[in-house]
Amino acid sequence: MSRLASPILALSALLFAACASTAHAPSSSATHTPSTVSAASAATASAAPLETTLPAGLTEANVTRVVDGDTIHVDIASQDFTVRYIGMNAPETVDPNKPVECYGPEASARNKQLVTGQTVELEKDVSETDQYGRLLRFVWLPDSSHPGQGEMVDALLVQEGYARLDTFPPDVRYEALFAQLQQQAQTARTGLWGAVCTSATPIPATQAAPTAIGNEVCDYSGTQQPVIKGNINSSGERIYHVPGQQFYDQTQIDEASGERWFCTEQEALDAGWRKSKS
Question: Structure pTM?
Fold first, then answer.
């Protein structure tokens, strides 16, 4: 577990206040209007270590796969779920419609280092899932040597400069904490706040951290051209079609309405789409 040279009481107070002030009523999905916290208010909060007493009401899960810097697959009671960390956003690495972003491969690697194969505890804020059907959760790593203690992975990634503050109401429980941690990372020019991503001529992500993602061969095309169609039907269900399926040719993709192309079937599944049955 990581430690910083400052009192644990500051973080405990922030966490207690956040848990006490947020309702637990379920919601079908998160809204998409970002919430903001001023840099000035973030800077006034004192630095604190991230390990603290685990909050109540957590759900135990086993991490089965890390997708990228802010998304994982977990097993809960023998069922597979995709979990999207909330309160933060890591640079993109797996979206076939976007280039690999600066510090994305590093964020993915750090997330894998932290949680691969681990038993974690999931904390819900207000929303149950996002628009892609992924569980929205804060992810806690228990400290096996100190029962009842642990640290939040979402917050740690922000503190270390692998992710940015990115909160969407109503899921804003730890917004002040994340703003404080981001301010620390910016001041220290840590991770994505360093010269590699903020200089006038930033080093391309492929040079900063070589990765095979940029040379990925897409399913069914044998090239880097994505051909899997991610369609949203009239009921709002997200279904993907692959070449050779019955409705593939007649399916038209309207990216303005949220439909998209996928390079691989795994990317479609990770984004919350299911495969067409015909």
Answer: 0.60
Q: Kindly report the backbone phi and psi dihedral angles of residue 224, in degrees, each rounded to the nearest multiple of 5, phi listed first.
A: -90, 10
- Residue 18 pLDDT grade (very low, low, confident, very high; cuts 50, 70, 90): low
Q: Which of 202, 232, 263 is the last residue of a domain?
A: 202
pLDDT score recorded for residue 254: 83
**Which are the catalytic amino acids?**
84, 92, 134
- Looking at the fold, whether 122 and 247 belong to one and the same domain comes out as no
Radius of gyration (C-alpha) of the chain in whole angstroms: 20
Angle, to 10 degrees, between the axis of helix 9-21 and the axis of helix 175-188? 140
Q: Which domain holds residue 188?
A: 9-202
DSSP collapsed to 3 states, 140-203: EEECCCCCCEEEEHHHHHHHCCCCEEEEECCECCCHHHHHHHHHHHHHHCCHHHCHHHHCCCCC
Mean pLDDT highest for which of 7-21, 85-99, 148-162, 242-256? Answer: 148-162
